[in-house]
Amino acid sequence: MHHRDFDLGSLEVFVAVAELGSMTRAAGRLGLTQSAVSHVVRQLETAFSTQLLDRSIRPMALTAAGQRLWHWSNRILTDARQLPAAIGGADAPFMPELRIGCIDTLAAPFIPRLLQRLRDNVPSFSIASGLCGQLREQFLARRLDVLFTNDSFDDMDQVDSQRLLIEPFVLLLPRSCPEIADEAALRALSRTLPLIRSTTDSALGRLVDQHLRRLGMEVPRSFAFDATDTVMAMVAEEMGWSLLPPTALVKSRQHLSHMRVMPLPTSGFRRSIHVVTRRGELGSLPAGIHKAGRAVIQQGYFTDVFANSPWLKPLIGR
């Protein structure tokens, strides 16, 4: 038997017959002739190769197979009636699988805490973490539904971007390094100790290079890494200094006790992280995702970083 041997209409006819106990009354409810209803029932019996109604008694009754078909038909028809709202409605929060992309500096422990808040509405998740540019390509190719990224997508129509947080870049120094109180001290540092960089193919690396150029600082290239955990490990081992946002410090917080975290003595160097979705495709789900993400950030996400650097708390905003 193939699924094409029956359709929703024939199941609806059968349910009416089962509930009313009469083909004549079912025909009246559905606006059909009695012969049309009888034909549909016989087609179903042929399709399932079994008798569905016991016609030898009055009123006729469902056989065991008929009981099973009535049960499953009700479930199928109920789901079918929900399809228009679930798929094309303006408010369709349910998704069978949600494909989320998240920049590497935010992914842990943010994503596990986020999924705890979303799993009641979404039964299945697929997660990709990586560089901002790679995630953008996957989103544009429709391999991802939601992005947590420092790319606002303000160059594109039909994309909604909600800001999750704004965070400043901070200065990471070896424990033995003296305090950097002003821009002159930062310039002196750059001449005596290597800068541990993020690679230039990452948005993080490009942001740092752009800021240094604005300051007129040409810092020699010695070390560049695509993982911020390695950047922080290098600073912890007193191999150099670095500039990173606090979310990167959360991910690699095990290194915090082995370095100094200080305000950057040049103002205005910040980045924003956004929740990006396609406009109008996920109903109310993007608002729920943004709300859940904000709750994760506000409820203890930066606890270890603030304990190490309490001056940071008022500098991280929405």
Automatic annotation (TrEMBL):
Name listed for the protein in its UniProt record: HTH lysR-type domain-containing protein
PANTHER family on file: HTH-TYPE TRANSCRIPTIONAL REGULATOR YBHD
Native source organism of the sequence: Azospirillum thiophilum
Domain HTH lysR-type: 6-63
CDD domains the record matches: PBP2_LTTR_substrate
A GO molecular-function annotation: DNA-binding transcription factor activity
Family matches, as Gene3D superfamilies: Periplasmic binding protein-like II (3.40.190.10), Winged helix-like DNA-binding domain superfamily/Winged helix DNA-binding domain (1.10.10.10)
Domain of life, per lineage: Bacteria
Alphabetical keyword list: DNA-binding, Transcription, Transcription regulation
One GO CC term on file: cytosol
Keyword Transcription found: yes
